[in-house]
Specification:
The complex is a heterotrimer of chains A (120), B (774) and C (141). By secondary structure, chain A is mostly helical. Chain A is built from 3 helices and no strands. With 774 residues, chain B is mainly α. Chain B has a two-stranded antiparallel sheet with strand order 1-2. Among the domains of chain B are: 249 residues, no CATH class; 86 residues, no CATH class; 63 residues, no CATH class. The C terminus of chain B is likely disordered. Chain B is built from 32 helices and 2 strands. The longest helix of chain B has 32 residues. Chains A and B meet through helix 1, helix 2 and helix 3 of A and helix 24, helix 25, helix 26, helix 27 and helix 28 of B.
Amino acid sequence: MEVALAIVIGALYAAGLYMMLRRSMVKLIAGLVLLGYASNLLIFVVSRLTRARPPLVPEGAQGIAEPFADPVPQALILTAIVIGFGLQAFALVLVRRAYQAVNNDDLDQVTASDRPDLQQ
Amino acid sequence: MLNAVLAAFVLAFAAPLVARHMPRQVGTIAALLPAGIFVWLLNQAEMALGPGVVERWPWSPLPGVALTFRLDGLSLLMALIISGVGALILFYAGAYMHGQAQAGRLYALLLAFMASMLGLVLADNLIALFVFWELTSITSFLLIGWHFQEERSRAAALQALIVTGGGGLALLAGFVLIGLVGGTWEIAELSAQAGTLQDSVVYLPILLLLWLGAASKSAQFPFHFWLPGAMVAPTPVSAYLHSATMVKAGVYLLARLSPALGGTSEWSLLFMVTGLVTLLLGGWLSLKQNDMKRMLAYSTVSSLGLLVTLLGLGTKLATEAAALYLLAHALFKGALFMVAGAIDHATGTRDLRRLRGLAGALPTSALAAGLAGLSMAGLPLLAGFAAKEFIYEAALFSGGGVWILTLLLLAGNVAFVVVAQQMTLRIFAGASLSFESFHAPAIPLWLAALVPGALGLALGLLPDVTATLAGAAARAIYGAPVTIHLFVLPGSVTPMLLLSALTIAAGILLYRRRVQLEPWLNWLDQGARLGPEGAFQRLVEGLPHFAARVTALQQNGRLRSYVLWIVGTWLLLLGLTWALRGGPGLPANLLVRLSDLRFHELILVLVILAGLASVMLANTLMTLIVSLGVVGIGTAIVFILFGAPDLAMTQFSIETLGVILFVLVLYRLPGVVRLSPRRTVLRDSILTGLAGAVITLMILIITDLPLVSPLKTWFAGASEPLGHGHNVVNVILVDFRAIDTLGEITVLGIAAIGIFALLKLRPGRKVAEGKDGP
Amino acid sequence: MTSIILVVATRLIFPLMLMFSLFLLLRGHDAPGGGFVGGLMAASAFALFALATSVTRARDALRRSTFRLIGIGLLFAFVSGLPGLFAGSPFLRALWTSTELPVIGKLSSVLLFDTGVLLVVVGVTLTIVFAMAEADEEEEE
């Protein structure tokens, strides 16, 4: 499964970056979301996969017998998912406001904020 | 010693307050502190000249980094100059700056500078010395830029800061190397490591870094140009920082480190060549100046070159000469600067061509200038005479290249004699001119200049005191006992005496014929534009242009090109490393590893990929959102299958909420459109496809390697006994790494406020507060 | 966009979801669950309520400003670290009581921390959802 997921993650990164390179504002958000999925899966996979053995200590026991899934990346990814949601929401609102303000969904037309020469 | 430094810093902060309430007396009050330090130093002199006084204040947990102070012969001489001249300068500044706006700031900066400079010469630890070194650069920057409303001042200040600050960076690197090789940061202990340091492979790099630091600070060629520029500062600043003290810091550092690093042929070559070039260049340039302060500045450059030459020579006689000259120069040059300031104050001009016959109007200043000028020219009975005798003696007994060295030093000294005459005969003698706005200077303006002038005479008349002071300093530089024998008047005719006489005769001749010399002097102007200052100008002007062009190329305001640059750079660096280092290829056992793929997992993978394809091909927003949902749910199922139920639950919840969010803004969003031409699509596909392939390859390689995770084992074993919880993931989040989680939820809160602000706050509209009321 | 089916279903599901959220929080230390998931679940419940009825009514049901929830949550999480500090241990060192209560289990500073996480997540999520929905409503006016 690691091999198959490696391909999936590669595809997710490629698609995410591709969408971020588009001029359409909505595609930018889709790209961000895809990059979020890809990164979470990347952390998950490089710490190795273990089938159906969550890191739960059995009742009465002191520890967990191998094999079990690594809890450390899970803790990282859990907060990353929630933060990713915040990012997604922020991007959505930003695009919504930008679209409202410039009435144009071509990102190439929204350059003035970065170019002092255009802000006269 | 720490108390002295700290007291000066504290008084520096109090000075503006004092200046506001007692504008007349502030200079005198501020001068009391350096005067007190001066007296205290004299009290300590016996100890300092003997075993030395040491204080040690450890302030950092790092081994070897301590605030160590040591008062020995060399630091005593420097500290006496700093506090003595400092007291005079503050006294002088009280009259010079009277009535000027923000004068309090000047006292504050002068005192802060004095504290830093005292720290610099007293510090016996390389790190502490470096900190004080940089503090003097910063206070110097602020003082040069005193008239900050003027473009010229700001430019000169910035130039000085860049040159000395850049040198400071090199010096830090040099110090680190010395510390690593010598095994200690304490300067006193470094002398014992001289052998280790000089045999080390990094000896030459250390020397070059030291050269950069010392030469930039002490205005040696090719960094000499900042010092004349610094003359835009008020005269007290020029007299104090840029003639008597700060510019000596580089010389002091060479003297301080010469027991540990000096005595080699590399050392001699590097510093003698630098010193001699600076001596002659400075002397030459000082001859053609019409501005008194600029002339004195170039003459100072020349004097510093002389000192560096002597330290490069490094013989016993040379160190004695250096110590004597250091003392004499601080006195006569400080006095001459203060006289120049007094004349400027009284007549409103510093132009030598417009000044004549001032002796009648300013008799006391004339006396001060006369004493200082005689010392500078090296006439008997004055401190400068003994110094010059020793310089020639050091040259005559230097061992090799005696005549060349003697001739070059003679040439340099002749220029000093000319400058001395410019500052005395040319200004004060002859028929007096009338000035429209002439007013007699206040007492401090001439008294402060007269004191060092008279001291030059006193030291000449008391050879024992001079010999003791300079001898102790020479001992610290030379690293072995040194005794200097001085006489009030020469007892017999020696070669050195003849050379002195020749110097003065040539100087007088050159001064008389200065009008005929002008075409010669102007010739040098042609070369000046190509000199180091021109190079510096071009560098400073070129840098912003270069930066602007790079910025315009990389940051054109289009998000897409930023992403493109990042991905492209990443691929390029990775590819280069891969190609150069011959990175690992595709692991061989891929098929074996692929064979453990189960049927339901294959279906899952295909569903995710299909969802992904649908995202990319989507034509409507609805398709896009649903396809993204498919990919997200697919990810959640991966989490379920591989033992991460917490992640799966979180991911499911997020997908639900994400859809709700999209639904809420659906009608406010632009549609999914195709805007890029075919060629761009092709380019982006190739680039991102390559990036994805590299990621896949990296994962395959990483997962092929064995993984040892001590954290995994530790958390699994500690969760129940220490955290009283069975769900290890949750225990990590709320117990073991709780402070991280606290940080994360704080970030979430901030993001929510940002989103709220973005949605609700609009220009020209009031916030609807009621909407979010309790 | 109110449909009768959505309204009725929400009325039934809403309390269930809130109870499930509480359940996830309480069992989170020993089984899958915890403050993050619990918070998202509770936020979903209120978001659904807002969709089915109106943001105003959802806000009334919440009783507290969403910002206040974030503040209280952060305060809980922060305060839960103080006992450890007073006991001479590092900030956020977990402390446990020995008495076992019905349903809640052992009381601990960790539970307070996780409750804080839940409140922050609910507050953040609902701030976003409500603000978006309101912006939409305002523009339709």
